[in-house]
Design brief:
By secondary structure, this protein is an all-alpha fold. 49% of the residues lie in helices and 0% in strands. It contains 3 helices and no strands.
């Protein structure tokens, strides 16, 4: 990409990341409390941990509870 002078896309915010990953993995938007908790978390590995946590969800995207 550098040789074509195409700039890198800007990183998304924590809120955008949480919404995108939650929708992709579970098929659902995160609840407001989960958003607040994720955004306030100072752990530099919180995005990786979020993905791991969502992937451990037994039923993803089926709409069944």
């Amino acid at each position: 990409m550098k040789r074509d002078n195409v700039p890198h896309a800007a990183l998304c915010t924590d809120t955008e990341f949480l919404r995108r990953v939650s929708l992709d993995v579970t098929g659902r938007l995160p609840e407001a409390g989960a958003i607040r908790k994720f955004v306030s978390d100072a752990d530099p590995e919180k995005r990786e941990k979020l993905i791991d946590s969502l992937m451990e969800t037994p039923v993803r995207g089926s709409g069944e509870d």
